[in-house]
Design brief:
about 240 residues; alpha+beta; Arc Repressor Mutant, subunit A; 2 domains; 5-stranded antiparallel β-sheet; 5 strands
Length: about 240
Amino acid sequence: MLQGGYSSVLQARSREEFRDEVVRFGRALGFETVTAVAVVDHGIGRSEFITVDNTPKEWQSAFHDARAMRQDPVMQHCKRQSLPIIWDQATYTSQGQGDLWEEQARFGYQTGIAMALHLPEGRHFMLGVDRDRPLPTDRNALTRVVADLQLFAVHALDAAMRVLVPNDLASEVPTLSSRELEALRWTMDGKTAWEVGTILGISERTAVLHLNNAMRKLECVNKHQAVLKALRLGLIH
């Protein structure tokens, strides 16, 4: 199901379809509640938050309270970093926010995983999954869950920027060089930068440069998202 979830979220054509796919994937991973947020910075202190979630109705108003978000250590982590955060009660108590955890725990928010992807030009995407029971104690099992969520986030990011922030994709399709497109095509086939360089008769460093240029032109945070966006725009097939 997880593999199907990666492709299904890319097919979302509306906010409702996107929400359904995100919630479905989160539940397949074993999490009851899921939150996905597209953030667009319009200037210093002026950010637009577009959120889809399945937050319990009783917790909705507090969950979306901007003041509480500024106090929430998980949100503050995602604001500053791209590394996933695995959180529980200790995450909140260590930051003096034990009362906040106690309050949200009543609605099922006892532990979870959250992450953010930061794009150029003040755009961000945050994804979080939460539940009311402990996460797997086996390190390998937990690592797999985090990896699955990270891969899903890359796919969901493209759909979120298209569905939740439609005007963001109204710009012209970027022009990529033939080498940049070739590098993306071989990356799509699972080749490493070293393998791409060998196939194209260039150095690994040059292959990385082409991939980085493609990522910059497509305004993507990594090569996997660049491949997905190039496919959607019809630049590669």
